[in-house]
């Protein structure tokens, strides 16, 4: 019992003394942990800190010798994957394996590698579904279970490492706000909720909430944040380009494109070409190109949803005056089919975007029949609107295009213009009647004059 109490105290001290830049690995009880050491090193020491004391666990050069320092209980759970690659594994992890570890390696008598990292063993490690964030949106990510008076600690994943490495960012009395590229994050101390503000980054973003009960790790819950897929609309036969606008190109390898179907399974469809800017280019769209696409680096991901529809007929024209309410109809809306509206306007710089994600379209609602209702219409709403109707497999089955045009009070579509044209048309008819009458009278006069002379 005393040993457990001491362990809990040490783990509590470990967590509270973790610095923001220290590396943290979270593992589930009975899982394994691998040390990846430089293969060119002649010898390496693995040590663990217990309070102020540094305990050498093993030396890679005499791991299995009689003089080995490996504790007996650890020796039974330790294995070497490859001495050439410097991989060592501790199996069947227990709470007693939690702690701060130090890796030191020598080559020709000189220290060539050194790293400190904290290992935290939890009863459970859960991965919840990722959170989809609309660009610029504010949202809350809860820490489940923290309401039961459990201590909590928010960590952020560091994707610069192949291993799943975390860093402490929240949880003490001084750090509650973090500004990062493309977002701001704040922890609500009373509820343990993570507030996300103005999330616009393509950087891979993952947090975990570490729950502690009497200084012992109960669970770790991961929350991965994704920007809402940018939806791209196209029709069969058109050319489409998906830009790879990732923010990190520091890898030696170029960005990689991944393709998914509409249930997020990877697909084996023909890979479109990639241009010199790593953009994905479709020279001639087909219905089968509908799906999800991701441009990935080790640190970033740009995500698209491509909707390809059959070719549509001539567009309809809808006129409006400022302040009116306009309803745009969507055809082929049937049971089991869902509509999605797109707009192309000067407000979107000619790009085709989904209407519900456009910041300029806050006055928009969708009718039960799939129609698009725009209230208090203004000049900003002018543009081309597409209604794409999708079936249960998210395939586009039809599309209709409507051009929304402003009715100029004095333009050709205005009432003034119509009345003016009617008046002018009436005057023109009257003028024609007068001309005809004058011509007939002139002809009669000529006929009478001719009869008199004869």
Account of the protein in words:
By secondary structure, the chain is mainly β. Helix content is 13%, strand content 42%. The chain contains three helices and 33 strands. It has helices at residues 2-16, 72-75, 415-453, and strands spanning 23-28, 33-36, 43-50, 53-59, 78-82, 87-90, 99-107, 110-122, 124-127, 131-133, 139-141, 151-158, 165-168, 177-180, 183-187, 194-197, 205-213, 216-227, 230-235, 240-242, 256-260, 273-274, 280-282, 291-296, 301-309, 316-320, 326-328, 338-344, 352-354, 364-366, 372-374, 383-390, 396-406. The strands form eight sheets. Strands 9, 10, 12, 13, 17 and 18 form a six-stranded mixed beta sheet that branches. A five-stranded mixed beta sheet has the order 1-8-7-3-4. Strand 30 (364-366) and strand 31 (372-374) form a beta hairpin. The longest helix has 39 residues, at 415-453. The protein starts with a helix and ends with a helix. Residues 1-20 and 411-421 have low confidence and may be disordered.
Write a concise synopsis of the structure shown.
By secondary structure, the protein is mainly β.
Task: Please outline the helices and strands.
Layout: H1 2-16, E1 23-28, E2 33-36, E3 43-50, E4 53-59, H2 72-75, E5 78-82, E6 87-90, E7 99-107, E8 110-122, E9 124-127, E10 131-133, E11 139-141, E12 151-158, E13 165-168, E14 177-180, E15 183-187, E16 194-197, E17 205-213, E18 216-227, E19 230-235, E20 240-242, E21 256-260, E22 273-274, E23 280-282, E24 291-296, E25 301-309, E26 316-320, E27 326-328, E28 338-344, E29 352-354, E30 364-366, E31 372-374, E32 383-390, E33 396-406, H3 415-453
């Amino acid at each position: 019992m005393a040993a457990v109490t001491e362990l809990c105290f040490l783990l509590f001290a470990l967590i509270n003394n973790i610095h923001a830049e220290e590396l943290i690995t979270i593992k589930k009880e009975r899982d394994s942990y691998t040390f990846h050491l430089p293969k060119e090193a002649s010898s390496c020491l693995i040590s663990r800190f217990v309070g102020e004391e540094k305990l050498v666990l093993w030396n890679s050069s005499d791991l299995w010798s009689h003089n080995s320092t490996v504790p007996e209980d650890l020796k039974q759970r330790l294995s070497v994957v490859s001495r050439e690659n410097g991989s060592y594994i501790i199996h069947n992890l227990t709470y007693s394996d939690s702690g701060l570890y130090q890796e030191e390696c020598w080559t020709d008598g000189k220290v060539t590698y050194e790293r400190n990292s904290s290992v935290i063993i939890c009863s459970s490690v859960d991965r919840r579904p990722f959170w989809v964030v609309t660009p610029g949106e504010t949202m809350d990510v809860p820490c489940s279970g923290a309401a039961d008076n459990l201590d909590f600690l928010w960590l952020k994943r560091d994707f610069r490492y192949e291993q799943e490495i975390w860093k402490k960012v929240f949880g003490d009395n001084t750090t509650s706000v973090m500004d990062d590229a493309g977002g701001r994050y704040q922890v609500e101390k009373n509820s343990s909720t993570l507030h996300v503000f103005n999330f616009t980054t393509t950087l891979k973003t993952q947090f975990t909430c570490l729950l502690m009960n009497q200084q012992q790790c109960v669970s770790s819950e991961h929350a991965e944040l994704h920007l809402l897929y940018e939806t791209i609309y196209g029709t069969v036969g058109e050319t489409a380009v998906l830009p790879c606008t990732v923010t990190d190109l520091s890898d030696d390898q170029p960005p990689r494109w991944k393709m998914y179907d509409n249930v997020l399974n990877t697909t084996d469809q023909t890979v479109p070409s990639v241009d010199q800017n790593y953009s994905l280019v479709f020279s001639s769209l087909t219905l089968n190109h509908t799906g999800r696409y991701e441009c990935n680096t080790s640190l970033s991901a740009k995500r698209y949803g491509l909707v390809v529809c059959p070719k549509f007929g001539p567009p309809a024209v809808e006129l409006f005056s400022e302040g009116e309410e306009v309803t745009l109809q969507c055809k082929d809306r049937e049971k089991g089919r869902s509509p999605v509206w797109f707009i192309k306007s000067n407000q979107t710089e000619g790009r085709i975007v989904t209407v519900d994600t456009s910041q300029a379209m806050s006055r928009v609602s969708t009718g039960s029949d799939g129609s698009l209702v725009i209230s208090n219409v203004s000049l900003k709403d002018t543009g081309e609107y597409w209604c794409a109707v999708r079936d249960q497999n998210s395939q586009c089955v039809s599309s209709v295009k409507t051009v929304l045009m402003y009715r100029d009070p004095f333009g050709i579509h205005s009432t003034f213009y119509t009345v003016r044209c009617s008046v002018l048309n009436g005057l023109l008819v009257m003028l024609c009647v007068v001309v005809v009458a004058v011509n007939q009278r002139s002809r009669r006069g000529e006929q009478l004059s001719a009869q008199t002379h004869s």
